Amino acid sequence: MSDDASARLGLTYLAPGQLQKHVTLNETLTRLDALVQTCVVSRSVQAQPASPPDGALYILPQDAVGAAWSALPAGALMRFEAGAWAVVPAAEGLIAFIADEGVALVRSEGDWGPLGARLGEAQALARLGVGTEADAANPFAAKLNKALWTALTAGEGGDGDLRLTLNKASQADVLSLLFQSDYSGRAELGLVGSDDLTLKVSPDGGAWTEALSVDRTTGRVTAPMGAGRVQTSVITAGGPFTVPAWARWIRAVCVGGGGGGGAHA
């Protein structure tokens, strides 16, 4: 431990019997003013500003120009105070808000990077909104035009598969995908009040009609409102006929042969 300055931020200590203690104290307070709740004007301004306000902070971009800036490396944190520029040593882990971008950066391994990229994981969040506000009814909400889920490959530590699992508490509950138009329901697909797969449709979001159901035990598909499938079979005299499992009704057309017989339905 140094007797002259703090170990991490390099804040100068007051020494016993030191003259002009106020100078050292003021320097330390100025450093703290830059490091506490750090707010940077910009990280993209290349030309050194002529007359910024006292306390203004900038992160230097590549090829910065100006009497005080040009000799310094990209990423240096600069502070303007009392007519002069000074480098503010940025400790590992320093978080800075970039005012002209509305983003937060963190100092890591000698460089600045997005704070979000350093979080690693976020656990037990109560709400998450992506492009919109989440609320109590919709603790996860997203407002976007495209979304992608892609499998983790074997080379990345996965197995190449991707399976999205949705689970409900009991048979009587609902697990479904609800399709809306202008926030009014038009179709619902899922396990709706049972464990059979059901498809329902609605013209107005209020009145619903069951269009399709798949029995979870037999796999049999039923269409309560009727199905549009039609199959024509030609049967010769004495030929066998097996009713298809999907058929709801049969129409037979009998055509007589010889003797002037006619067709009968």
Helix percent band: under 10%
The unreliable regions are: 261-265
Sheet with most strands: 5 strands, antiparallel
Estimate the strand proportion: 25-35%
What's the overall geometry? rod-shaped
Structural class: mainly beta
Q: Report, as a whole number of angstroms, the end-to-end distance.
A: 104 Å
Looking across the biggest beta sheet, what order are the strands in? 10-11-12-13-14
Strand and helix order: HEEEEEEEEEEEEEEEE
The DSSP helix count reads: 1
- Average pLDDT metric: 87
How many strands in all? Answer: 16
* Spatial extent as radius of gyration: 36 Å
What do you see in this structure?
The protein is mainly β and 265 residues long. Among the domains are: 37-117, no CATH class; 174-222. The protein contains one helix and 16 strands. The chain has one helix spanning 21-35, and strands at residues 39-40, 57-59, 77-81, 84-87, 95-98, 103-108, 111-114, 128-130, 140-142, 174-181, 184-192, 197-201, 209-214, 221-222, 254-255, 263-264. The strands form five sheets. The protein has a five-stranded antiparallel β-sheet, with no helix packed on it. A four-stranded mixed β-sheet has the order 1-5-6-7, with no helix packed on it. Strand 11 and strand 12 form a beta hairpin. The radius of gyration is 36 Å and the shape is rod-shaped. Mean pLDDT is 87; it is low at 261-265.
